[in-house]
User: Fold this.
Amino acid sequence: MEKKVILSGIQATGDLTLGNYIGALKNFVKMQDEYNCYYMIANLHALTVRRDPDELKNNTLKILASYIASGIDPDKSTIFLQSQVHEHAELGWVLDCYTYMGELSRMTQFKDKSAKHADNINAGLFTYPSLMAGDILLYQADLVPTGEDQKQHVELTRDLAERFNKLYGDTFKIPKPYIPKVGARIMGLQDPKSKMSKSSTIPNDTILLVDTPDEIMKKVKKAVTDSDGIVKYDEENKPGISNLMEIYGILTKKTMEEIEKEFEGEGYGTFKVAVANAIIKELEPFHKKYNELMANPQYLEEIYNKGAKKATEVARKTLKDVYDKIGIIS
Ligand code: ATP
Ligand code: LTN
Assistant:
């Protein structure tokens, strides 16, 4: 039987956070044996916010190195850059013409990012989800593993695919979002009511995968908690502690009840040190591999060129079918 297809991507917008790692990367790695996986670096999506060109190039390589360092095997999965497979921009445009303004204006990410970048609410930021739908539909993906924040975009992708199929006959597979049950929304350490995000500007709010053990310890120790001193899961009233518990639980495979028991009668200080140590231990092999990869840009270039070739073969077929159906000579 043919393996089901997975596609996902991460924007090339900065150093990856623990949120990206737990919400996305860890699942990418888990899925490689069972599925035919395409993992992309969304560098075209990154243009929706103004970027320094050298930094964008470097961030692209950083994400690629992070994919491999966290365990994605380029011999098992296809790793590629969105910009190297031109079909993405082309299908993105076609889908723009099948997406309604009303649908796009309901997208939470658009609303959040427009508020954050009020001086640059560009058309790309608005049509971002249609490009993302193109990414997914080109590969006839069955599942799209992402964190919670991307679910709405995958749902829109399903609507677009159904709309297109209804008009022109079976063309796209209808993809499903694949959101982890725990860890789909890791919150900021300083602002535990907002998701941890790689473009956050709040100091000590994010744990970066490249942070040193010292930095990790310091940031976790500074994490915002509450004043009742009890390690107990209560997302509503104890968001800071609950977020740390979630992180600790995922990394040590313990349930919230087990964690509550483990730290019964202990203060937050002891708990925070345990959380920081769990993160440090998890990221130790990542660090080593990441530094090796970043010191070898030639190898990274080989990987993305090879990935682009494989991805193009699949993407080209879907785009050709779409163009034939809608009357575009190609
Ligand atoms: P940016 O700050 O540039 O918007 P981001 O940190 O939100 O970046 P994305 O590139 O948008 O990261 O997301 C990459 C993947 O990581 C997506 O699957 C997304 O759902 C997931 N993800 C991002 N932040 C978190 C988080 N805090 N918790 C769990 N998953 C997350
Ligand atoms: N929008 C996503 C990144 C992304 C993506 C995709 C994820 C671009 N294309 C296709 C899954 C499938 C984000 O901001 N995390």
The chain has a mean pLDDT of 96.
